[in-house]
Amino acid sequence: MTELITADFVELELSTDDRHTATRTLAGRLFKGGRVTDLDGFLADVREREEQMPTGLPGGIGIPHAKSAYVTVPTLAFGRSADGIDFGADDGPAHLIFLIAAPAGGDSEHLQVLAALARRLINQEFKDALLSAPDAATVADIVAREVVPS
């Protein structure tokens, strides 16, 4: 089975306050890693999804996501922002950003990842672990251990 997240898909210092720029940064990692075949095409799908409903969640979380023909396998990218990025949540900016990329036909996998992630994000210890993780490999390990459906 292909790993959902690897250290290559983690950006610990997102240095923008624009959600589209942040999403492009994370998607660029997926493109570089071969998980996304057309960066602009995938970003158009993510933006279309964002326009339907903001993907900011309470507690400083952003979850931009899309099912796209340009995604090869279900993949998760993660970004951390010290200053926060507005993803449309009522309580303010997101400091933890998860970009979920799912193949166009991957309905159940996409929803499984989203549901597992949402369940874990209720847990403050999980969020704190991600906020304080010293490096990308640690983040990938935490997410893989806590979120990946077994």
TrEMBL record:
One of the GO biological process terms: phosphoenolpyruvate-dependent sugar phosphotransferase system
Domain PTS EIIA type-2: 3-146
Keyword Transmembrane helix in annotation: no
Record Gene3D superfamilies: Mannitol-specific EII, Chain A
PROSITE patterns in the record: PTS_EIIA_TYPE_2
A Pfam entry, by short name: PTS_EIIA_2
Keywords: Phosphoprotein, Phosphotransferase system, Sugar transport, Transferase, Transport
Recorded GO MF terms: protein-N(PI)-phosphohistidine-sugar phosphotransferase activity
Gene Ontology annotations for the cellular component aspect, listed alphabetically: membrane
InterPro entries: PTrfase/Anion_transptr, PTS_EIIA_type-2_dom, PTS_IIA_fruc, PTS_SugarTrans_NitroReg
Domain of life: Bacteria
Protein name: PTS transporter subunit EIIA
Organism expressing this protein natively: Phytoactinopolyspora halotolerans
